[in-house]
Amino acid sequence: MDAQALSSLIEICQNKKILYAEDDMDVRMQTCKMLELYFKEIVVVENGLDGFFRFEHEPFDLIFTDINMPKMDGLIMIQKIRKINPTIPIVIFSAYDNTEYFLKTIQQGVSGYILKPFVFNDIIEILQKIMQTHFSAHAVHKNALIDGFYWDTKTQTLCHHQSVVKLSKHEIALFELLTSSKQRIFCSEEIENTVFDDDISNNKRVRNLLSRLRHKVGCDLVQSVYAQGYKLKWQYH
Fold first, then answer.
1. Bridge partners for 152 per DSSP
2. Sequential DSSP letters for 83-130
3. Which of 109, 139, 169 is at the close of a domain?
């Protein structure tokens, strides 16, 4: 990797917060020294149980983990994390190179698998892949809303920080419509025709849909504009 590419990689990584789970103290210390060259904020845990607890209570951009750990192994931790966030990139450090473990990690949708003992370039290659395919390209698909919510147009999911909010088919159709333009105000009739896709005219359905959404997410993501219609509450920087 040339100096310019390396500098760009470090710049992208600097503002990412990572979770690193490893029970072996020597490996943990060595790996942290490598990761600290790229990441300013690294949360280190010694087992999968502590890792999952931290993930539940803090936002992370990227996860590095061992497989064989006490209290909860890496695969179980990944399974639990994937139920909360199916898209966060996860990299596995492991001494296991047999097919069984490799297939299990693929099933969990890991972004990288590094065999121990590893060298510095192994981490660089994985970071290049993740930053290019997940953060650079993936970020284009994220539409930031208020209070830490965002709509991912690629996966058609509403997320709150790291958690995916389960939506009904009507709620998904609503977000697809409202995210199609940040400037537009959508009238109630247009929302009703697009979301429900039938010939029934009943404006109360839209109000009920928005009420259920408000109750589900705990805030008003959709703004009512008097005598005009509705629009999403975008996060402007």
1. 142, 157
2. HH-SSS-EEEEES--SHHHHHHHHHTT-SEEEESS--HHHHHHHHHHH
3. 139
Predicted structure pTM score = 0.57
Residues 24 and 104 both lie in one domain: yes
Domain that holds residue 27: 3-139
Helix ranges (DSSP H) in the chain: 3-14, 25-35, 48-57, 74-84, 99-107, 120-130, 137-138, 169-178, 188-196, 204-217
Q: How many CB atoms lie within 10 A of CB 196?
A: 16
CA contacts within 13 A on the Cβ side of 74: 28
102 shares a domain with 13? yes
Domain count, the chain: 2
C-alpha angle 235-236-237 in degrees, rounded to nearest 5 = 120
Residue reference for tokens 């209570």 = 57
Mean pLDDT of successive 10-residue segments in the chain (237 residues)? 68 84 90 86 94 90 88 90 82 70 59 75 80 60 80 84 87 91 86 86 90 94 91 77
